[in-house]
Amino acid sequence: MSTSNQTYKELAIPYFKEVFDMIDEVLIKRKIPYYLVGVNAMALKLLEKGGKPGRGTKDIDFALMVASMDEYEQIVELLVDQGFTRVKSPWTIYHSQFNVVVDLLPFGQIEENDTLSFHERYSDLHVLGFREVLESATEISIEYKIAKIPPLPGMIILKLVAWSDRPEERDNDLSDIFRIIETYYDHEWDHIVAVHYDLLDQVDEAHGDLKIAARVLGRQAQVYLRKSTELSKRIFDLLRNNLLDAESSQIAREWAKLKDIEVVEALLILQAFEKGLKELEAG
Predict the structure, then answer these.
(1) What does pLDDT average to over the chain?
(2) Fewest CB atoms within 10 Å of the CB: 51, 81, 148, 164?
(3) What's this model's pTM, rounded to 2 decimal places?
(4) Is CATH 3.30.460 correct for 8-150?
């Protein structure tokens, strides 16, 4: 568990503390395992390593491990009693006092016990990969609270799934993934030198740091794909479609625009991630 002394002020998300405390209290009382996911989880992880949080958002995403639709509905009702209101999306609630939107993303046994009703009601919800990634969640302390978050390689997998489900609505996912890659090299330098030293001959290449980081992240993300044939197929199909050529790659074109580099160079970074996923895990 991390013992970092991060503060809500450093996180720079308006009313995060107030909302987090309310949800934490309800879920702890009900003994519901939950995880902070999305850009807020990424911000906490980057802060832990001394990085900047990145883009701000007033949306907070939680993944809830629940057994049934009834259990999930009871949780939502308890949060409604705390001042939240339901909105159109069945997994979203809103707090008008803080102007904060919260997604409560159910996964776990609910997918098995209520298969038909779950998939009918949550047809637009991307939960593929949650179970696999969150099994290795890490704990980060923030002002005496504990937040469970996915590891950075797992965040990339979850964001690729989310983006592939609704690319027209999830444009921030690609920039978040690139943010992880471009900060990973410096933040995890000691680990790269100790475990992935075979890649260091790429340091002097153009954007070598990004290629090394992407490949290491790919190596570390292998573990999630091994757990699920469906998840593995989704990720490799997505990568294959985006690696056919530079100009047709939506991911490479978006990364090139973000970093102001050639699309071909962005494609090489994406290729490095795929290569890491495919090769024997180095550590």
Answers:
(1) 87
(2) 81
(3) 0.88
(4) yes
